Amino acid sequence: MAAPVSTIVTGAGSGIGRAIAIKLAAIGHAVLVNDLSGQRADEVAAEIRAAGGIAAAKAGDVSSEADVAAIHDAAAASHGVVGLLVNNAGIAHQALFENLDVKDFDRMFAVHVRGTFLMTRAVLGPMLARRSGVIVNIASQLGQIGGIELAHYSGAKAAIIGMTKSLAREVSSRGVRVNAVAPGPINTPLVMELSEDWRERKKSELPLGRFGEPEEVAETVAFLASSAASLFVGQTLGPNSGDVML
Ligand code: NAP
């Protein structure tokens, strides 16, 4: 029997990341659960182990070079060379462009863009050496269409989509598959941080008439991680209730 794929899911203490970690563990991955909160990472890893899966936890900030090295080392020490990275960690914040503080702008790009870059750089060398690996970046449909009061969030997610395409062009012929997922609104604590007005307006615009659940995004990630997605390279898949149709 093949060894379980050593897998890192960032920001997996909550919401979509938690659902991804649980889903991947259920289909046989050995998961390193990362989160800013060590307690939440421990809880999710314990939940996976209680269900018979393989998981370890490591707290850390994906925008910190030192923390990223520690997250990568923890995954490699626990489960071997990393074969799948899911860059999921993210934050929400709303402000009209003219009121946007530099510190809020910088933090948005640090967590999403610098975090995705640092984590990807940490796993890429060993993946290229083995000519095998998969990277899935969690973007957002707002990176495709923009969002009012969300220029920094939308800009960061657009950067992730661009980075995904560039990296996919560089490395797919060397055995590493890179894709992105751009969810629509999903019922998680992050969306509850946005205003009720925003949530009500958004729901009324959705062809499906409802927000998604984290488990529905996890299915898309599990597909992209699998050999069934062997022809998907540099793509951005949209589990988005029909909000964006490309
Ligand atoms: P969530 O429930 O708030 O989960 C995000 C997790 O990431 C939290 O546990 C958070 O920890 C962690 N995190 C934040 N900054 C981090 C950092 N620097 N290093 C490590 N972990 C960090 O949000 P979610 O809705 O599941 O979002 C997951 C991803 O999906 C994000 O990238 C988000 O942008 C994207 N997304 C979400 C939606 C949606 O509607 N929910 C739609 C499209 C895309 P703390 O809570 O301790 O800060």
Key terms:
Rossmann fold, single chain, globular, 15% strand, binds NADP nicotinamide-adenine-dinucleotide phosphate, alpha/beta, 7-stranded parallel beta sheet, 246 residues
Count of extended strands: 7
* Count of structural domains: 1
User: Averaged pLDDT, please?
Assistant: 97
Radius of gyration: 17 Å
Structural class: alpha/beta
Order of H and E elements: EHEHEHEHEHHEHHHE
**What name goes with the CATH superfamily?**
NAD(P)-binding Rossmann-like Domain
How many DSSP H or I helices? 9
Q: What small molecules does this complex bind?
A: NADP nicotinamide-adenine-dinucleotide phosphate
Largest sheet, strands/sense/barrel: 7 strands, parallel
Output the CATH class name. Alpha Beta
In CATH terms, what is the fold-level topology?
Rossmann fold
Main β-sheet, spatial strand arrangement: 3-2-1-4-5-6-7
Q: In whole angstroms, how far apart are the ends? A: 40 Å
Shape: globular
Query: What amount of the residues lies in strands?
Result: 5-15%
**Low-pLDDT segments, ≥5 res:** none
Q: Percent of residues in helical segments?
A: 40-55%
Instruction: List the quaternary state of the chains.
Output: single chain
By CATH, the architecture is named 3-Layer(aba) Sandwich
